[in-house]
């Protein structure tokens, strides 16, 4: 029985969006498929989540297994679609009070909304999720975009600036097959990973500052065997088009710097929408 559930896979959805699943339970983190255009965002247009794209993604991900939708912080490119992913699957929405206020504004039932705090841990299927306070990277012109909190239900459609940051979390996802850290925004709090180990790190790239410092404090500190970069794609471009790298992501520099840590971890670049088996065997067998 246990053997059947051993394999854990990751499907990258672009940005910091992933589905992490075994054969019975799926957890969505930061799912964002509406991919609003840069002019809509920059000029304050009201952003309407793309319900058709959300439905299509849910179907292709296997919506019957999705039990929770967790959100790292409340910016639109992490949160705008999350309540809608949660609603049709009756999944619980997990996040800061700001995140939960967006769930409320979308019409989610209170029993499916759960505010999380630093170090809260919860069991979902055979997974356990622990929320760890983190910091947002200075992702736009050296500044953290849209700071502040969402302190009342946010009824849509809303412009990007109203998706205020709220708290920022990284998420430790533990499973009998191993542990994964989702680090969705490229800031950090020194010492945040003291005493924590992870096999796989999903690492947000945009706005990271010094790459050596970033890698040493996250994947190296965690003892990760595998590093998967996320949130380096140009999220103003539709998912129906070929993936492009965000010009400000410094992705080439990231790759060449990460290469110098090859004794520490393997770098793995996923394709958007491709389900990749990640634990427990994939990396063990390559050593
Ligand atoms: Zn953000």
- Low-confidence stretches are none
N to C succession of SSEs = EEEHHEHHEHEEEEEEHEHEEH
Strand order of the largest sheet: 6-5-4-3-2-1-14
Number of helices: 8
The CATH superfamily title: Ribonuclease Z/Hydroxyacylglutathione hydrolase-like
Broad structural category: alpha/beta
Question: What kind of sheet is the major sheet?
Answer: 7 strands, mixed
Helix content: 10-25%
Mean pLDDT: 94
**What CATH architecture would you give?**
4-Layer Sandwich
Fold and architecture overview:
This protein is an alpha/beta fold. It has one domain (3-281): Ribonuclease Z/Hydroxyacylglutathione hydrolase-like (Metallo-beta-lactamase, Chain A). Helices cover 22% and strands 23% of the residues. It is built from 8 helices and 14 strands. The chain has helices at 38-42, 51-61, 76-79, 82-89, 97-105, 211-222, 251-259, 281-284, and strands at 8-12, 18-21, 26-29, 66-70, 92-95, 113-115, 121-124, 127-133, 169-175, 178-183, 200-204, 226-230, 266-267, 275-279. The strands form 2 sheets. It has a 7-stranded mixed beta sheet with strand order 6-5-4-3-2-1-14. A 7-stranded mixed beta sheet has the order 7-8-9-10-11-12-13, with helices on one face. A hairpin with a 4-residue loop joins strand 2 and strand 3. It is globular. The two termini are 27 Å apart. Bound molecules: zinc ion. The site of zinc ion has 4 residues, from loops.
Keyphrases for this structure?
287 residues, alpha/beta, Metallo-beta-lactamase, Chain A, 7-stranded mixed beta sheet, 8 helices, 14 strands, globular, binds zinc ion
């Amino acid at each position: 029985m246990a053997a059947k559930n051993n394999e854990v896979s990751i499907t990258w959805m672009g940005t910091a969006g992933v589905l992490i699943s075994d054969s019975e339970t799926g957890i969505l983190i930061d799912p964002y498929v509406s991919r609003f255009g840069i002019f809509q965002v920059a000029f304050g247009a009201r952003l309407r989540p793309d319900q058709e794209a959300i439905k299509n993604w849910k179907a292709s991900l296997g919506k019957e297994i999705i039990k929770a939708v967790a959100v790292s912080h409340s910016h639109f490119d992490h949160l705008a679609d999350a309540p809608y992913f949660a609603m049709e699957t009756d999944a619980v929405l997990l996040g800061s009070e700001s995140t939960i206020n967006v769930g409320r504004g979308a019409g989610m039932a209170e029993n499916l909304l759960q505010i999380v705090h630093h170090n809260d841990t919860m069991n979902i299927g055979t997974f356990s999720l622990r929320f760890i306070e983190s910091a947002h990277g200075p992702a736009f012109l050296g500044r953290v975009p849209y700071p502040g909190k969402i302190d009342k239900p946010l009824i849509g459609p809303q412009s990007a600036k109203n998706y205020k940051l709220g708290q920022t979390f990284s998420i430790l996802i533990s499973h009998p097959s191993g542990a994964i850290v989702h680090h969705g925004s490229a800031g950090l709090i020194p010492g945040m990973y003291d005493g924590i180990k992870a096999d796989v790190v999903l690492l947000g790239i945009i706005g990271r500052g010094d790459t050596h410092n970033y890698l040493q404090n996250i994947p190296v500190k965690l003892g990760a065997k595998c590093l998967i970069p996320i949130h380096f794609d140009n999220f103003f471009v539709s998912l129906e088009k070929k993936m492009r790298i965000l010009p400000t992501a410094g992705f080439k520099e990231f790759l060449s710097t990460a290469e110098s840590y090859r004794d520490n971890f393997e770098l793995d670049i996923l394709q958007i929408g491709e389900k990749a088996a990640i634990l427990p065997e994939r990396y063990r067998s390559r050593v």
